[in-house]
Amino acid sequence: MFRRWLKANALLAPTGVWLGFFLIAPLVVVVEFSFATRHTGVARAVLPWTVQAYRTALDPAFLPIFGRTLLYAGATTLACLLLGFPLAWFIARYGGRYRTALLAAVLIPFWSSYLARIYAWKALLDGEGLVNTVFGWVGLDRDGGFLLTDGAVVLGLTYGFLPFMVLPLYVACERFDMRLVEASYDLGHGRVSTFFRVVLPGVMSGVLAGSLLVLVPAAGDFVTPKLLGGVDQSTFGSVIDDQFRGGNNWPLGSAMAVLLLVLVVFVLVLRGRRGEDVL
Amino acid sequence: MNRRPWVLGVVVALVFLFLYAPIAWLAIASFNSSRSLSRISGFSLQWYAELADDTRVFASLQLTLQLALASAVISTVIGTLAAFGLRRAFPGRALWTVLLSLPLVVPEVVMGVAMLGFFVKLAGVPLGFGALLCAHVAFSLSFVVVVVRSRVSGMDVRMEEAAADLGASPFVAFRTVTLPLVAPAVAAGAAFAFLLSFDDVVISSYLTGVGSTTLPVFVYAQASKRGISPEVVALSTLMVTATALLLIIGVVFASWRARRAGSVARLA
């Protein structure tokens, strides 16, 4: 038993050291900054310690932004699931010897820069853009196009994070024994019942892993809301970013970052042991 | 089953349309004769010509590629080790999984500002390539572990036991049985890590120093000032085309090798 413990920890040690230095230590620094009075030019925390930053961060004024962030992240995850599952299932089941090629075809668009892709959407959703023109043919066009709407932000996020959903889903679909579907049909289940009782439980680990991989980056992203949305689409991430880049209020930004972390830890605790097979 | 999955096929085709429409639009716009991305006014190659003359873009592209490659190599090696470390139950495994899930669940902006504070506080470490590499490995590692571990945990232990029974040393068993089984997952993890690093804007934007601007950060800085430049659109088009070509060559080569292996097998 001790040898096994030693072996496992030896294999995990490099990862542990790296994450200890470049993840845990930085997070500790953020906590330290969040209790500082203000930050000086060399970014050292200034005494005395205070909770002023938390008071400001918990101001009701920031509440709608927090809610909006969660809404965007949730909607993005759902949209990625709805688009990603048919894709992953199709490739795993019908891809045959073209599986790898099809999977790669999903990833090819993501070899262009993330920003260029967002700008492509910006151009397509623009007042004189292609989407608005096509919608105009059936009378569904909008003045000024679809930019600066919640839908535009969720669309951009969905586009940006879809591969994070497709890859784990594909792994789960590939491991799924397709004969179970046949067996379920043979036993008299219809399509819907087969999907919910056989397929979905079978690929659940992929669904959970993919959702986690989309939800969190989507909640932290500020580039998409900034470029496709307007002032009314600002998210928690963009407010934190403003404190560090423009506003130069590091303690406030840090306090908000710590609050976001608390939320993350809360989600992790809720997930509890069920998450074991996800990671 | 002989029901043809044509509904599924249509849905998949639509998802592919969704994936490729913006890219196709970028490709068209890169030949536009005006700066606009939304209105096409004529054909021209001027943005490609300007791209060829732009040394800043190429310098940052080179840096971004080096960074992504280094980050992918480091995170794949230590991440694969970690995935094997988590294979069997041992006291403390739950703690390790929590640590490893942190980079997946901590929002990028939080990681970015944390790293900025950390490296600035250290002061001895100037922001730049080193800081970028440390950060990129830190956020790519867990993705590698997830992908490799899913393969490792689904692997049949009896395969390796059989190898050992047949007299293979642990090293030989690993090289000839275990490694080929996990190789696809390791490759996928490496590709994932490369892509994550290559495309990262948020974390990198806090850590770039003078002369170490990655391409995404360069583009972001430019884009937030006066919109995206057609040069960058031209570059994106070239990058997607190159990737697609590499992929096609890879598929053709793989099927050629498979066919040749098949004919050799028939001869024998």
Q: Determine the number of helices of chain A (DSSP H or I, runs of at least 4 residues).
A: 13
CATH architectural arrangement of one domain in chain A? Orthogonal Bundle
**SS field, number of helical segments of chain B:** 11
Indicate the CATH topology of chain B: MetI-like fold
Proportion of residues in helical segments of chain B? over 70%
Using the CA coordinates, give the radius of gyration of chain B: 23 Å
- Give the radius of gyration of chain A: 23 Å
Portion in beta strands of chain B: under 5%
Which spans of chain A have pLDDT < 50 for at least 5 consecutive residues?
274-279
Oligomer: heterodimer
CATH class of one domain in chain A: Mainly Alpha
The amount of helix of chain A comes to over 70%
> How far is the N terminus from the C terminus of chain B?
35 Å
CATH superfamily placement of one domain in chain A: MetI-like
Ranges of chain B where pLDDT stays below 50 over 5 or more residues in a row are none
Order of helices and strands of chain A: HHHHHHHHHHHHH
Largest sheet of chain A: none
Domain module count of chain B: 1
CATH superfamily of chain B: MetI-like
Q: What's the CATH first level of chain B?
A: Mainly Alpha
User: What would you call the structural class of chain A?
Assistant: mainly alpha
Protein described:
The complex is a heterodimer of chains A (279) and B (268). Chain A is mainly alpha-helical. Chain A has a domain at 64-256: MetI-like fold. Helix content of chain A is 72%, strand content 0%. Chain A contains 13 helices and no strands. Chain A has helices spanning 2-34, 52-57, 63-94, 99-107, 114-125, 130-137, 150-175, 179-186, 191-202, 204-220, 223-228, 236-245, 250-271. The two termini of chain A are 23 Å apart. Residues 274-279 of chain A have low confidence and may be disordered. The two termini of chain B are 35 Å apart. Chain B has helices at residues 6-29, 46-53, 55-85, 93-105, 108-122, 129-153, 157-165, 170-199, 202-207, 215-226, 230-267. Chain B has a single domain (56-258), classed as MetI-like (MetI-like fold, Orthogonal Bundle), CATH 1.10.3720. The model of chain B has no long low-confidence stretch (mean pLDDT 84). By secondary structure, chain B is mostly helical. Chain B has 11 helices and no strands.
